[in-house]
Design brief:
Strand content: 25-35%
Helix content: under 10%
Oligomer: single chain
Radius of gyration: 23 Å
Order of helices and strands: EEEEEEEEEEEEEEEEEEEE
Amino acid sequence: MKRVAFLLVGLVATIGMSACSDDDNGQCPSVYCDDSGCHACDPDSCYCWDIVNSPCDQGCTQDEYCTSDGICAQRCEFDGNCDEGERCMPEGYCSPAENPKQDCTSDDDCGAGKICQTDNQGGMQCQPAECQSDDDCQAGYVCAECGRCEPKDNPVCGDTKRYCNTNDECGSGRTCNEAGKCVFTCTTNDMCPYGQICSADSICVDDPNPSHTDACVTSSDCSSQIQCKDMGCMCVNTYCHPLCNNNTDCAAQELCDMGICRPNYRPAN
C-alpha cells in the first residue's frame, strides 16, 4: 500500500524523491535530518522526500516543541491533534507514524479487508474487518459482504437498503419512513432520541438546526459530558453521541451502529 507522508509541522516541500540512508540497524528511518535539511521516508521502499521544518535555533513557536533532531514539531496531547500520517509521541509532539491512520467516512474509503470504524478518540478510521466468515460473529449474526457482523435476518451493510416496508414491522411508537427506516413518532421534542427533534409530521428527525447549549464542534469537546464518561463520545451534528460495543451500552431508544449510539432505526423483530 502506498504511504502518504505528512509534515511534522508546516507544508510539504517540493517532493524530490531519493533513496535515504539506512540507520544503525540497517533499516530506513521514518524521519531524519542532515546538512541538506529534514526528510520523511517510506520504510517499505526506503525512498525519502524533503519536509519543511524550522530548526530549533531559529526559534520554535508557542505551539511547537524542539525535538531531539533539532527541529520544531507541533505540540500534541492525542493522535487526533496531529495531521494524517502522524502520531502523538510520548514527549508531546507530532511525528510520522509507522502505520499512519487512514481517515474515512464510510467503508468505501477503505481498501479490501478493512471497514470504517470509530477509534478510541471518536474519529473514523479504516480498521481490519470484523469478520471473514459467519463463525467470527456472535449468535444471530452473519458476516456480511462488507466484513461486518450483521443480524442474520437483515444482513445489510451501511444505510443503503430498506429496513422496513410497513409500520407494523417497527412496533409500537414507531413508523416506517420513506427511506425504509423505523422512526419514532412524537408530539414533543422530549419524546425523541438524543440528537433528534419532533418534526411537523410528528416523527423524530435529526436536528436540522442544532443550537443546544452543549453543542460540540469536535469529539474532544465532549469529554465533560456525563454520557461520555465511560467509553467516550463522537461529535455528530453538534451532539455528543456515546461510543459503544453493543446495544446494551446505549439508551433505550438507541442501538449501537458502527460503534456509535444512534436512534434505533431497525424493525422490532
